[in-house]
């Protein structure tokens, strides 16, 4: 998208025709003309989203700054609602530590329609945000869909009826839900669908016993499955948002279920309408409808395997995140990065497991550190990154190197968010790691980190003088490094850290230094004491692929000036004078056979 392009909204294209409902459509448009907040309510799956999107599409010309859809169905944390709206509006760079305030500032003076879709599980946060934005921006209209009203001043509710999406099109489930209308309102039915297997009971007397309740119907299907199909059904319930074949094999297979059997079993479950197979770019994703996933989780808990499977799920997705974080020179890096984004919901589920399960604190912190560059920095989700990292640091209290890295990352994210008050205490706890390096006799690394810490503190306009305990450790570390390196070598390393850009400081500090020095490649070697940061290694690989600075900037979504700076740093650190030398070094650094 060129710099002169003016984006005026986002609505997804409709894949099927919109039939009927002219009266409801006209009513929604009429209500929006007279009210700044209209909420479409009704039981799940009645078509609230489709109606809202069609109404919004018909109103595009009425809003100078467009109509924008914010999909909240995959969001599970109330604290991230404002961040989700900012991302939908393309404001990642402005979604700082106070995204709600940034949104209010951005929307003031603009005329647009915001569609907040699926608010029911985040209704408190959605209501507060809508109220704030409507008060700040006179030209804003909000069209929300929810299973309950937002219940704020000025809201107009339009009830919508139809088929239950929350039951994902299961005919028996829908019929059983309809049978409850005699004794419960649609809103009461919907509120109780969290226990859908208990609620949807007592169908018509003339039906077979297996169709008298939703649970009986699912149990009937379960009994018709082979033992291996039942086992895989239960184990697949650990995935959030579905999975792909390699994940199913890696997590669900063991001595009871061979990896070679998984593909045939997936096909069998899909053939029995238990599993949904969605063909997408990059492969096929398999997903259990939520009702069947709930049933599978019950079976998994009954078997005593639930915690073990959640831990295997966590380990597999941590390994994927680690690959992307550390193997920048791998030929598969682009595929792994794309895959990591597809698994966002599963990575979040893995982090949630670490938060809830005793003894998993360090693992949760590891995952947060592995994904910071891709989810929180490159994708612009800084607020989400700070929130997730804060959760992990609150639990992982042991003074380890990884906790120090987490504190440094948290201070960096606070700094780029403009939250200067949070930076100094985090940096004080994190010092930028230099002590740990000195204690391991990695004195050159310690000197670089000392310089980097000083640079960050100067950037924030602060010092360590306010905490004499921390400042004392800092001076001891500096003294040890000076004695070990000598004044000239210490000053060279110290100033190298002092001059590092903030992003490179973070990348350098988050590297896990090897216990033993790596063997030098036969081709031109990396200058000792000047390792490339993960971002620089990525740029080096793109150089080896023949990319120009302009191409590198476009692929990494950075400015061309930043790309040029990275190339300059790479040449200086490696002691090279040409891009061809960088390409030769990358080729020599790869294991035999890679990239040929």
Question: What attributes does this structure have?
Answer:
596 residues; alpha/beta; 6-stranded parallel β-sheet; two-stranded antiparallel sheet; 29 helices; 8 strands
Oligomer: single chain
Name the average pLDDT. Answer: 76
Q: Helix fraction?
A: 55-70%
Strand order of the largest sheet: 1-3-4-5-2-6
Catalogue the unreliable spans: 1-7, 15-20, 161-166, 168-172, 203-212, 512-530, 592-596
How much of the polypeptide forms β-strand, as a percent range? Answer: 5-15%
Main beta sheet: 6 strands, parallel
Shape: globular
3D structure, described in words:
- The protein has 596 residues and is α/β, with parallel strands linked by helices.
- The protein has helices at residues 22-34, 48-58, 81-88, 99-107, 123-136, 171-179, 186-191, 196-199, 214-224, 227-236, 245-252, 259-271, 290-303, 306-326, 333-342, 344-356, 361-378, 382-395, 401-417, 420-430, 434-439, 443-459, 468-485, 487-498, 502-510, 534-544, 549-556, 560-574, 579-589; strands at 9-10, 37-41, 67-71, 112-117, 140-146, 155-159, 276-280, 283-287.
- The strands form 2 sheets. The chain has a 6-stranded parallel beta sheet with strand order 1-3-4-5-2-6, with helices on both faces. The protein has a two-stranded antiparallel sheet with strand order 7-8.
- The two termini are 34 Å apart.
Structure at a glance:
The chain is α/β, with parallel strands linked by helices and 596 residues long.
Helices and strands in order, then pairings?
Elements (H helix, E strand, L loop, with lengths): L8 E2 L11 H13 L2 E5 L6 H11 L8 E5 L9 H8 L10 H9 L4 E6 L5 H14 L3 E7 L8 E5 L11 H9 L6 H6 L4 H4 L14 H11 L2 H10 L8 H8 L6 H13 L4 E5 L2 E5 L2 H14 L2 H21 L6 H10 L1 H13 L4 H18 L3 H14 L5 H17 L2 H11 L3 H6 L3 H17 L8 H18 L1 H12 L3 H9 L23 H11 L4 H8 L3 H15 L4 H11 L7
Parallel strand pairs: 1-3, 2-5, 2-6, 3-4, 4-5
Antiparallel strand pairs: 7-8
